[in-house]
Design goal:
- This protein folds into four domains: 216 residues; 70 residues; 71 residues; 157 residues, 2-Layer Sandwich (Heat Shock Protein 90), CATH 3.30.565.
- The protein contains 24 helices and twelve strands.
- The strands form three sheets. The protein has a five-stranded antiparallel beta sheet. A five-stranded mixed beta sheet has the order 7-9-10-12-11.
- It is of the alpha+beta class.
- A hairpin with a 3-residue loop joins β11 and β12.
Length: 703
């Protein structure tokens, strides 16, 4: 063993104490970067600094030193266990807790034995046995702790490893050092003085390894020299290696002695020099070195084969437990950049973007219209990935800040926007959540995200086309069934009508005849009315619009539903709209009935009437169970999708189609657990002449 001067040993402990305490103080305000383990790591560094001070004061071999050393071990064991919570494995891996508790118990036994040793009359063989037992306890803790560190890093995910590599390296350094330290102590039967004198460097090294993990970004922590610098450095290494080899061989030849050896040595030096002059400046050699460096010392950020396989596996996943396609789409894009969550926005009927799905991001508040049609058109034209951090800081040279919605700019965890383009059409927009280990996006991220976005856009477009085809086939089947129903109702109506006529002629009992006639006439009128409505809807005939006083109609609707459920009606003034009264009554009846069905208690359904510049606005608001964004987009207005047993699932669809036929719009906004708000917008009656002129001009232009 090499003797270490006492002054140098003291200097190492001073440096270790100062660095550990300083890094602990620096990490504590940034402890959230290590999750729940941040406070434990700062405490462990501080305890390590205290141990250095105790050891420096000569307490390394007494009770105070033993207590400080054991406290250091227990603190780092607790910090190791806390690091498993970064990705939640402290709850899912129960053996981790058991192993940590066993190691702490062994360390507690060792501490108790070390404290009791000075009071025991130990000499000779008994002292050696107790010393060996103490060292074995230390070895058990070191080996068990290394197993924990190995599982901590190897079992973590890709994003977790980026955060764990720094503290895991520090822990591995500590336990490997102590494993060697106590192995030598066990074999020699005494403390290795050299290792003990240099152990003060261990807290210094651990602090130096842990500090980068708490830095702002991991991008600046990685040694990433340019390719030019790497090539020049490698060239110098080759030249240096060549010179060392040449000198070494020449010196070996000199050891042979004699004139013949000196001749061989001279010939070797000359030959090696000629080879160096001829080949080292060679452009071919330099080119080979550059290619070799590029292939073996540099690699792209992504393994494209692995990324593409993972992308296709996520999108193509099948089975009953599989999440919907929209959620899988967000998941597939987020996996590329290790984002922990995201949302998907898809085009609505008016060209704006609406929330379609969330993946691990329930806290983000998204408006009903997430992005206007003008903003969506910008991303359709430009087709580029938006780095929201660069946009917020003003580093981006593009003008995307004018078209990014304010709610998205204000969302601090929003990190990137990936447009999904298919044949110059925007099929969706994925917004990614900022990873816990944040970094700045670069050209490689943009290229891969753009390719994945185009592929995903084609998937969504294909799904949309398949849904339209299935819907068309369902309509064909529905029309075929309605034809049979209409035929049967028509026959029944004819029979009832004929029966009523015969009863008028042949019934003898006047009172019976009168009751029968009333009943038959009512049945015949209802059936004929249903037949007329079905025939009109199936034939695609347009409704006959006119001026309709909405306030009067809403009063009738309130009187109709008041015995069933309380209705609160608010009207500011009388408003007449250009609509078909029967169709509007059918729409309002459906929407109010749905609001009543969604409200389980006696809470009133609110009906508001107001106007804007060109429309009469009817709001129907309930405080019921609400609907998910996925259902609002994918199920509410889809025909043949019904939550009621035996229902056709065309109520909301028919309501929207009737409103559209009256040149109006039907909008919906809903939150799960809060309720829903349906808005019917119909053109004002005074604008009917304008609509009539527009239709006449369009007809003349078509002719």
């Amino acid at each position: 063993m090499i003797d270490v001067p006492a002054a140098f040993a003291n200097l190492t402990y001073i440096a270790g104490a100062a660095s550990a305490a300083g890094v602990a103080a620096w990490i504590y305000p940034r402890r959230e970067r290590f999750g729940r383990a941040g406070g434990a790591i700062a405490a462990a560094l501080l305890i390590s600094a205290i141990w250095c001070v105790v050891a420096l004061s000569g307490g390394g071999v007494n009770i105070a030193g033993a207590i400080a050393f054991s406290a250091t071990y227990l603190a780092w064991l607790f910090a190791t266990y806390r690091l498993f919570s970064i990705d939640g494995r402290d709850q899912s891996l129960k053996p981790i807790r058991s192993v940590a508790l066993v190691l702490c118990f062994v360390e507690a036994l060792q501490l108790a034995l070390a404290v009791a040793m000075p009071s025991l009359p130990l000499e000779g063989e008994s002292a050696r046995v107790v010393f060996s037992l103490l060292v074995l306890f230390r070895l058990m803790v070191a080996v068990g702790a290394l197993v924990l560190v190995h599982n901590l890093y190897v079992g973590g995910g890709a994003s977790a490893r980026k955060l764990l590599r720094w503290p895991a390296s520090a822990l591995a350094l500590m336990w490997v050092y102590d494993l060697n330290f106590f192995t030598i102590a066990y074999l020699t039967g005494g403390i290795p003085e050299t290792f003990a004198a240099l152990r003060g460097l261990l807290p210094l090294a651990m602090a130096a390894l842990i500090a980068p993990g708490a830095a702002v970004t991991g991008r600046a922590l990685k040694l990433a020299p340019s390719r030019s610098v790497a090539f020049q450095s490698f060239s110098l290494m080759v030249i240096g290696g060549y010179l060392v080899a040449m000198v070494g061989i020449a010196q070996w030849l000199a050891y042979l002695g004699g004139d013949f050896a000196r001749t061989i040595q001279l010939a070797f030096v000359v030959t090696a020099s000629v080879i160096a002059v001829l080949f080292l400046p060679s452009a071919k050699l330099r080119s080979w070195l550059k290619v070799t460096l590029t292939k073996h010392l540099f690699q792209h950020r992504y393994d494209y084969r692995e990324e593409w396989l993972r992308f296709t596996r996520t999108i193509g996943r099948a089975g009953e437990a599989t999440t919907p396609l929209f959620e899988r789409a967000v998941h597939a894009i987020a996996d590329i950049t290790d984002s922990p969550g995201g949302i998907l926005l898809v085009p609505g009927e008016n060209g704006d973007l609406q929330l379609a799905a969330r993946w691990n991001w329930a806290s983000l508040d998204v408006p009903a219209s997430a992005m206007s049609a003008e903003q969506a058109d910008f991303f359709t034209r430009e087709d580029f990935i938006v780095d929201l951090d660069a946009m917020r800081s003003g580093e981006s040279q593009a003008r995307e800040s004018e078209f990014v919605p304010e709610w998205l700019t204000a969302a601090e965890r929003a990190w990137a926007m990936v447009p999904l383009i298919h044949y110059k059409r925007l099929t969706g927009m994925v917004v990614l959540m900022r990873p816990q280990y944040s970094r700045q996006l670069d050209w490689e991220d943009f290229d891969l995200l753009k390719v994945a976005g185009r592929q995903l856009g084609s998937y969504l477009a294909e799904r949309e086309g398949q849904e339209a085809l299935v819907e068309s086939r369902q309509f064909d089947e529905f029309n075929r069934r309605i034809a049979f129903v209409m035929h049967d109702i028509k026959n029944l109506a004819s029979q009832l009508t004929l029966l009523a006529r015969n009863a008028e002629k042949h019934a003898e009992n006047a009172e019976f005849r009168q009751d029968m006639l009333v009943t038959l006439r009512n049945s015949a009128e209802k059936l004929n009315g249903l037949l007329a409505r079905l025939g009109r809807y199936n034939a695609g005939e347009a409704v006959a619009p006119g001026a309709v006083e909405i306030g009067e109609l809403l009063e009738q609707m309130r009187s109709r539903f008041a015995p069933i459920h309380p209705i609160e009606l608010t009207m500011k003034d009388k408003i007449a709209v250009h609509a078909d009264r029967h169709a509007l009554e059918q729409v309002l009846a459906h929407l109010i009935q749905n609001a009543i069905d969604a409200t389980s208690d006696d809470t009133a359904v609110l009906v508001n009437l107001k106007r804007d510049s060109a429309h009469g606005v009817i709001e129907i608001i309930d405080s019921g169970t609400g609907m998910s964004p996925d259902f609002v987009r994918g199920g509410l207005f889809k025909p043949f999708v019904s939550s009621k047993p035996g229902g056709f699932g065309i109520g909301a669809f028919e309501a929207r189609e009737l409103v559209k036929a009256m040149r109006g719009r039907l909008e919906v906004e809903s939150r799960e657990g809060l309720g829903s708000r349906f808005v019917v917008l119909l053109p004002l009656a005074e604008l009917s002449r304008l609509y009539h002129n527009q239709e006449r001009n369009s007809a003349e232009a078509a002719e």
